[in-house]
Structure formats: C-alpha cells, structure tokens
Amino acid sequence: NDKRKRANALSVSAEEFRNAAPPRWPFDPPDAKRDIAGTLGEIRGEMADGNDQVWFHNGLDIAGGYGETARFIRDEKVLRPMAVDNFGNLRESLRMPTLGYIHIRVGRDASEKPFGDARFLFDKKGSAVRVPRGSQFKAGDVIGTLNAMNHVHLIAGRSGAEINALDALSLPNLTDTRPPTIEKVMLFDENRREIETTNPNSRIKLSGKIRIVARAFDQVDGNAERRRLGVYKLGYQLLKSDGTPMSDLNWTIIFDRLPPHGAVPFVYANGSKSGATGETIFDYIVTNSISGEEFRTGFLDTTTVENGVYTLRVFAADYFGNESYKDLNIEVLR
After folding, report:
1. % of the chain residues with pLDDT over 90
2. How far apart are CA 207 and CA 224, in angstroms?
3. Angle at Cα 233 formed by Cα 276 and Cα 191, nearest 5°?
4. Three-class SS state of 212
5. Cβ contacts of residue 41 below 8 Å, gap of 6+?
6. Residues 302, 330, 333: CA angle, nearest 5 degrees
7. Residue 241: how many CB atoms within 10 A of its CB?
8. What are phi and psi of 316, to 5 degrees?
9. Strand, coil or helix: 9
10. CB 199: neighbour CB atoms within 10 A?
11. Distance CA 46, CA 25 (A)
C-alpha cells in the first residue's frame, strides 16, 4: 500500500503525459503505424481456482520483426542505479523514469554484438549490461533490438503508477473504427452457479443477486482477425419492457490506469486466459467495479426492481469511443 501511495503521488494524468513530448512509434519511421498486439489491463496467465500465476498486462505491445531496431520515443535520463533487468532472457528491459521498454536486447544487435554506444556498459564476458544513472537519451536514439517476442512492450507512467498508453501517447496514424465484439453474456447467481435455460430462445428468469459476465474483445484498424485485444471499459443497464432505461448506463470496469494486482479476480472470471501462445478469452465480471485503485464486488440486485420483463443490456467500449452492446431478455421473479 505504501508503494502504491508513493507511486500515486508521482503519477501524472494522461493529458499531461501526452503533452510532455511529441508522439512517435518505437521504430523508424517514427510516424509509421504498427500493429497493436496487447493493451493495458489484459489478463496474463489463466484464471482458475487456486491459480495465483495471473496478472494484469501493464503496457502496450507494439509488434515488430525479430532483430528489428527499437528506439526511444521521447527524451529521458536514466535515474535508476540498475535500469536494465532480466538480461539475456525474453523479458529483458530498460526502465526509464516515465517509460519502460521490454523484450529488447539492450544495446546490442540480433547476434548479441554490442553497438559500441558508450552509454551501454557491458562486462568483459558480455553477460550483463549496465546503463549508468544520469545517461541521457533523445527520442529516436537506439535502445536495442527485438528478441523472439517480436514486439516492444511499452509501459507508460512511473513504476507502480502505470497509465493506459493508448491515452498517454496518441501514437501517430493509429486509428480504430471497429467497435468491440461481445461474443456472449453469461449470468451467475451469488454463489457463482451459472443460470441457464433449457431453450436458448426462452426468457431467463432471475431472482436475488446476479453476477453478469461478458466475453468480449477489441481490435484496432489493421489488426488481423486472429488478434484479440482487451476492452477499455464495460458496463450494463436495465431497460423496461418498453425500452425505457431504468437508470443511467453504469460503466463498471475502466482501464484508464493499471489496477492493483489483487483486482485480477474481480475483473476476470474463471476460464479467462491470454499470453504469448494459446487461446485468448476475456470473460469480464461486469457487475464488479474497477477503476484506478478502487475495486469491489457488485451485483445486479433483482430485489430492488418490480417483478416483470426487462432487457439487460451489456456494453463494451474501446479507448477511441466505439461502443457495442448485447441484449438479454430477462424476467424478474422475486
């Protein structure tokens, strides 16, 4: 908690971050659009009872080619005594004050040969590299080359106070006109038992406290059909039988900042999973509330409405403002 409080004290808004430097991609040419392969807040690992090896993706994955040169996207000075981490493995990284660059061979090419830049200090065996505190880099300077992960994992914000890089960077020529896809909406009772009907076209009858789970994903313009990205925000609304909203749309899950690690099971239902290989499934618990540091369990409480027929409308939106929704016909029987 102390670490998070300190990070929050050092955090800046996405607007302040955007205005701090001209936007560019971490490759050349700096304004050439690249494929987005992962966004902030996506689950990594597989959510299952008893499995604690899951976490939130804390950056923006920008695809490139194996061995391609990666570059700094803005001017910064190294402040950490040990800015390079995980030397020689797939998670090798360089952490600057407000930006992090992961999956890079720092200071060397695809054959592991150092560039000869005096700011990158290698030991005699070439088995470690250090970037001294105070070393200064300009936007466009070379960081290193992409390893076998074939992308730059770009972190925006200070460590512990990460913000959504799509919002914080305004990358040149990046567009998204494609609304998120909601594949299905599932309902569970308070004890996490799924509520189903014998006929898929029949109305679902509900009573008590209900959990809403939406399977959804997003894509930006140019993404391959196989690519599935996390959704920026989700919410729900209850409509009367005549279509009149019972209340305002309640946006419950928002990924403007990285949530605390403990919030992972509050965002994702069992069966959610994603990573470098395998199937990607994002099952969001839409009735729970997640925003910034705050997260809590929530329900659609049918005891607060009159018996009758309603439409449950579940929404998903991306950062660029595209929205989609999916309706379920329900009947409340208290």
Report:
1. 84
2. 41
3. 85
4. strand
5. 56, 57, 164, 230, 255, 258, 259, 267
6. 50
7. 11
8. -140, 140
9. helix
10. 6
11. 30
Return d(Cα 149, Cα 105) in angstroms, integer: 11
Instruction: Give me the pLDDT at residue 138, please.
Output: 98
- What three-state secondary structure class fits 77? strand
Place of tokens 């494609």: 178
**Rounded Cα distance, 273 and 318, in Å:** 20
Q: Are 56 and 261 contacting, i.e. CB atoms less than 8 angstroms apart?
A: yes
Distances (CA, A) of 47 to 185, 189, 216, 279: 18, 19, 16, 13
Q: Residue 81: is the preceding peptide bond cis (ω within 30°)?
A: no
pLDDT of residue 122: 96
Q: Residue 3 is inside which H or E element, if any?
A: helix 2-10
Largest CA-CA distance found in the chain, in angstroms, rounded: 76
Query: For 275-290, how does the pLDDT look when each residue is reduced to its tens digit (9 = 90+)?
Result: 877 899 999 999 999 9
Residues in the chain: 334
Distance from C-alpha of 18 to C-alpha of 106, rounded to nearest angstrom: 25
Q: How many helices (H) and strands (E) does the chain have?
A: 4, 27
The residue type of 86 is N
Task: Answer for the pair 42, 57: CB distance below 8 angstroms, yes or no.
Answer: yes
